[in-house]
Every structure is written in C-alpha cells, then in structure tokens.
Amino acid sequence: MPSFGMGRKLFDCISSRWMKLRRRPLAYDEAQPAAPYLQGVYAPVSEEVTAADLQISGEIPRDLNGMFVQNGANPRFSPGPGHSWFDGDGMVHGVEISDGKPVFRSRFVKTQGLAEDIAAGEATYVGSLSMPGAGKRHKNVANTDLVFHSGKFLALWWEGGQPHELSLPELETKGTFDYNSTLEGGLTSHAKIDPKTGELFFISWGAKPPFLNVGVAADNGRLTRFTEVPLPGPRVQHDMAISDRFICVFDFPMMMDFKRPNQKSLGFVLDDTMPARIALVDRKDTSAPIKWFNVSPCFMWHLSSAWDEGDEFVLVGARIDGATRYTKSGEIRDDLPLVDGEHRFDSHPYMWRLNVKTGQVSERQLDDAFVEFPRVNDNYICSGARYSYMPRIDTSQQTLQANGIYKYDLDSGRRVDLSFPDHHIGYEQSFAPRSGATEEDDGYLVGYVTDKNSLESEFWITPAKTLEDGPVARIKLPQRVPPKFHGRWLDASLF
C-alpha cells in the first residue's frame, strides 16, 4: 500500500481541485441497496466548516470543558457499484466546549484512498458489497470509530488497516500511525482502553487465515502482544470487550453468502445451524489456553461493557437474533430496519454470564426494547459499569434511526427513557464526566440530534442523572450532521 506521505503530497498539490469539486452535487443509483443511506438526512455534506458564533438554547454547564467528536460515513463522490453505508469516506464532526462557549468543526479524514478519488475526480473504488473481481476495493475510509491513545487522537475503520491521526482541536489529518512500526495486521474499530493501565486492546480480522488476532498496545505507542485466536473459518467481526482479567472476542456464525440465485452483490447470512461462541483470552498469562463458551446462535455489532464478578465473566451488549435479511433456508425478512438490504437490526439489551471455572453459561434478554450503539462511562468500561445508555431504535423506519435514549441501571433493572421531539433522530451518545465527578453517572450525555423535516442538526448536552428531564443545552449547528457511527468525549486536558 502506498505510504500516507505520498497521499499527503497528493492532497497538497490538488487543493485547488478540491475547492472546485466539493460543491458538485452528489448523485447516486436508486437501484443500489444503500440508496436510502444516501438521501434525506443521510445525504453527504461536502463542506468542511469551522464556526464559533452558534445559537444556544439553555445554558452550557461550566463544569463541562473538552470536545465531542463523532465519526461516520460521508461519501465524497457518487459511490461506485456495491456501495454500503459502511463504505462512505470518513468525516468527523466535533463540538469544542470551553468556559461555556462552543466551536463547531467538520473535517474529512484525508485518507490515501480519498486522495486517489480527488485526483481522479470520481470514486475509484467499488463498494464492499461488490462481487469479487468488480474493481479496486477495501478502501480504508477511517470512518467508524475514534480513540485517544499514546497521546494521539486516532480515526479507526471497522475492517482494520492503519489508524489515521487527527490534530486537536482542529481535526486535520496528520497521517497514519503504525505504533512506531510495531503494528501487525490492522487495528479494527472498537478498540478498548483500560483506564487503569492505559493499555489499548483491539482485534485484527480478515477473510484469510489467520482469521482473528487480538492485539495490545502500551501507552508508550508500541505493541506488546499480537495473538491469534483460532477460528474454523472467516467470520464477520466488529466489537470486542475487556475485563480486568480477560479479552473477550467472538465466533458468531455471520458468513458471506455466495449461493443465492441470480446474486449480483456480496451477501451475508447468519447460519443459525452453527454454534455461536464467546472466547476469553487471559490478559496476563499469554500461555493460558483460550476459554470457549457455546451460547445461543446470534450476532452482535456493539457491546456495552464487561466485568469480572467472582468466577464469572459478565458481558452486556445489543444482541441480534436474526441478524440478516436472508436466512440460511432462503427466507426473506423485511420486517425491521435494514442496512444495505443485508443486515437486519432486531437487537435487544442482553447479558451473558460465563463461569470460567465450571464452563456454565447463563444468558438472558434484559428488555424487549429495540436498541443499538450502547455506551457507558468509559472509566468503568472493564470494571463493572452500572449504567448503560442505549439509543432506542424506531422499528417503523426503513433505515436505522433512534427516536430516544434509554438509561439502564444494570443493578436494579430500572430503565429511564428520554424521547426526542417528533421527526427528530439521534445518534450514539457519549458520556462526558462532569469536572470533579465522583459517581459513575455524574456527568452528561453528549451527541447530535437532527430534525428530519428541516434537516437541521443540534448538539445536545443532557445530565445523565436526570436523563428523563432532557437537555440543559441545545446548540444549533451551522451544518447538518448526517447520522454517524461512533464518537468520543475528550477532556480539555488532552489538548
């Protein structure tokens, strides 16, 4: 793969071309499965914006200082064949808060692939749903997640590859970061940081052996571990978890499907005739055997948190029972929101308890509500988070949209509900601790909310302790923020 340095030079020499092209309206093929994710509230934005004079309803708390940044797909050019919502170029939208005053910024993640597209004046890669041989594919769009580690703010892609470093608070792309030449394979989105040790844990996966590895990087910017987790074949991977004792990864039977009649694009199927397994890898003893646990067939895009409780490893996430539109037997299910006509979202909050001594498994659904993108206070990500914040999915919609937020008390089972106004949708919310906080939920949920009718976006600040009372501040943004994937709150001390 060409170095990012080459891509950076390419960006410098075509800056004038960028200014001419960025105002060109985006077209799309209505026949593409991803078409609903390219129009309306999802339509890409082309401008990179910086704005400080923002309209505020309510009052920004003075005990909240830092920056919220969220990453997501935003195609720079009309997509090629086989486009997926997951394929759009990475664009970050951030709101910096300092002494009650906000600054908004939006920036493309300037990857090598985006540089190639800009040089050509069009998309040069095919989408991830294209059949093999259709063209240049697997462009690292760095559009999925964000993490601050080793003194660097990194944009991550769910398929892996090298992370891209962004400047703070400007959000300009500085280049790729390979952990000082120690990064083996790719560093996938949803990497987890242990707040006690500063270590970053991640997975690296692919369609060829080895199908899955776990990696660990120290805060000094070097890898300390890269270990294969043997699997019987390729699996779609996405998230992972850590506790104080274990790294948790998955063998869910989500497969690529090449056997449909008249198939024109890459398909997926959850093979519920195969076992679903959860693996626990010992964090400290690298020679310890991997502990495998068979669980009910399922898939999971996003987990909430994990922890050790006596002899049990406890995991909470948004479990999906019927994760694909097409079943192994050929049945088609169109009853719930879809992504790309392939992935079906019937996810519910769920808890697994894995006994590491006896091998016994206890699992249960926590609620019949449809949820996705769960988050916790990251300071408790591996040591027993009590509260989980999960967007409430509107199952009457064709696409994945949240019309509210649930706060789950995992100790008592109590659920608190915040509904967005009519015709508004929200995205994943991040937890921002209040300055001087001493309790887990002493802080704010921060994130974007958009009016689907006016196509105007706001940044909401909502006290986590009184979620049901709604936001204390709503900041009107100068640019619509298309529905995004994952975000991060960064304390002002980090930049």
**Helix percent band:** under 10%
Helix count equals 3
Calculate Rg over CA atoms: 21 Å
- Work out the strand percent: 35-45%
Shape type = globular
Q: Main β-sheet, in a few words? A: 6 strands, antiparallel
Average pLDDT, to the nearest integer?
A: 92
Structural class category:
mainly beta
Uncertain spans, ≥5 residues at pLDDT below 50? 1-25
Number of strands: 34
Span of the ends, CA to CA: 31 Å
Protein name: Dioxygenase
GO biological process, one term: carotene catabolic process
EC number: 1.13.11.-
Cofactor: Fe(2+)
Overall description:
This protein is mainly β. It has helices at residues 4-13, 15-21, 112-120, and strands at residues 50-51, 56-58, 66-73, 90-98, 101-108, 145-149, 152-156, 164-166, 173-176, 192-193, 200-205, 212-217, 223-228, 241-242, 246-251, 254-257, 267-270, 276-282, 291-295, 299-309, 312-320, 338-339, 343-344, 347-355, 361-365, 387-393, 402-409, 415-419, 424-426, 430-433, 443-451, 456-463, 473-476, 486-491. Helix 1 (4-13) packs parallel to helix 3. The longest helix is centred in the N-terminal third of the chain and has 10 residues, at 4-13. The radius of gyration is 21 Å and the shape is globular. The model is unreliable at 1-25 (pLDDT under 50). Keywords: Dioxygenase, Iron, Metal-binding, Oxidoreductase. Its EC number is 1.13.11.-. Belongs to the carotenoid oxygenase family. Its cofactor is Fe(2+).
